[in-house]
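Researcher: Structure for this, please.
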Amino acid sequence: MKMRILSAADVRRALPMAEAIAGMKQAFAQLSTGQAEVPLRGRVDVAPHSGTTLVMPAFLAKSNDLAVKVVSVFPKNSERYEPTIYAAVLVLDAETGRPLALMEGGSLTAIRTGAGSGAATDLLARPNASVVAILGSGVQARTQLEAVCTVRDIREVRVYSPTHENAVTFAREMRGVGPIPDTIRIMSNPETAVRGADIICAATSSSKPVFHNKDVAAGAHINGVGSYTPAMQEVDAETVRRALVVVDEREAAWEEAGDLIRPLQDGLITEAHIHAELGEIVAGLKPGRTSPEQITFFKSVGVAVQDAISGRIALENAIKHNLGTEANL
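Model: Predicted structure, token format:
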């Protein structure tokens, strides 16, 4: 029995953003129409080392995708000059359970998270949206930008990072890559980045809002992907209250999305404030944007269906283009 092993470079070649965005729409639709088996992610706290390991399995019945992701978040790794996140995705044959592929999961996670926002942007942002603000300058910020530029004709990118040097590096590395325009402006504060932006992407690990409601223009679309615990918050409560809120999965959002949990606890919104899951909009069960002036907010904490469908797409392309290596089991 053989299993294909894909490195981070292999995954990036095998999972093009446009294909990943199409895959996210399929995955979210299956999730929201009862065609996916996705338990809440298992969590193991590694207290002596201030780390957390998450286990994320998923089965998608319609597309017959089965995978398990293990992701470890160890913030102190930065002190060792190592990534704070390590991950691996195991793709299984849904008919037999046989392991088919083992993939580097950090790159897959970044691409599928960006692709989720790309799908949301395609469904919720105004068709003529052309200015995007990126808050953050890490790996997730890069795939957020690529995804948004894949689904909209973006002419201007604004980036803000608390560490100016990181924003400079981001701009230098991302200018003109694929669908990304040459114009990337480095902003000195989040206010100037957000004002007048048609699309706002927050990809930080902040515990407090990274921009303010007063700076959000009517008609803007917001993607919030950085916060994934109740203690984290990128989007302020007034923006949440003002927006049409769409999530990847309701149950996961109320468990993990500090952006929503905090205003709920403060009595500013109710659970009914979540308008829809993204898959409900894909499936035509709920409407998306209903006016050009409406503010839309896609809050994602990440769900395992994204990994399962991404793993299948990457494996198919890896076989097609002979990427990775095969190991005997």
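Researcher: Any notable elements?
Model: The radius of gyration is 19 Å. The chain has a mean pLDDT of 96.
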